[in-house]
Amino acid sequence: YLPIVACRIVKISAEHGYCSESAFGLWGYSLAQASILHDIEEGYLWAKKALSLLERFNAQDKYPTMKLYFHSCISFWVEPFQATPSLLKKNYASALAVGDAESAMASSFVHGRYQLMCGGNLKVAEKQDKIHASKMVSECIFYDKNIFYLLLPYGLPVHCLTRLFQLQMNQITYYFLLLSHQHLILTLTGS
């Protein structure tokens, strides 16, 4: 349904004027161009337009999400893949700066995966992921204390117990993806 929704957003935006949310329609259209129609150049072009639209509207709160989408789905087809992990690492910091914990966690997760695919040092990746995971726990609050107890085996700080009820469920999902990535690194390094 994403291509249909994206085309509808673009159509409505073209008819009634563009806003920062229109960028997500442009991104969806770019993803359809690249993945469904296999037109990488056209998809890349529309993704860049989506980023440009956010810059035009100075939508700093939406920019980390769009950069995450751009670097995890489109840019590596055109730009050097080895540059993507460092861009995602920067996006992690940008997302935290605007309070977007979901994009921060997802950027950290994708950063680690891409770093592995680029032949990055597994010990460095493990250390960075532990830092990011710890920071996510110390800055976020969980809905359910049982989720917190599931996280304890990963060596997360106990002082977070008092902050258990703010993180949205989709953010928890990304957090678990990050933890699964840490588990993969531990398995590969034999730690």
Helical amount: over 70%
Number of strands: 0
Order of helices and strands: HHHHHHHHH
Radius of gyration: 18 Å
> Could you give the distance between the termini?
42 Å
Morphology = globular
What is the overall number of helices? 9
Judged by helices, strands and strand pairing, the structural class is mainly alpha
How does the major sheet shape up?
Answer: none
Low-pLDDT stretches are 141-174
How much strand content do the residues show?
under 5%
Mean pLDDT: 76
Could you characterize the architecture of this molecule?
The protein is built from 9 helices and no strands. The chain has 191 residues and is an all-alpha fold. Helix 4 runs antiparallel to helix 5 and helix 6 packs antiparallel against helix 7 (122-139). It is globular. Mean pLDDT is 76; it is low at 141-174.
Any key phrases for this structure?
single chain; 191 residues; mainly alpha; globular
In short:
The protein contains 9 helices and no strands. The protein has helices at 2-16, 22-35, 40-56, 63-74, 84-97, 101-117, 122-139, 145-151, 169-189.
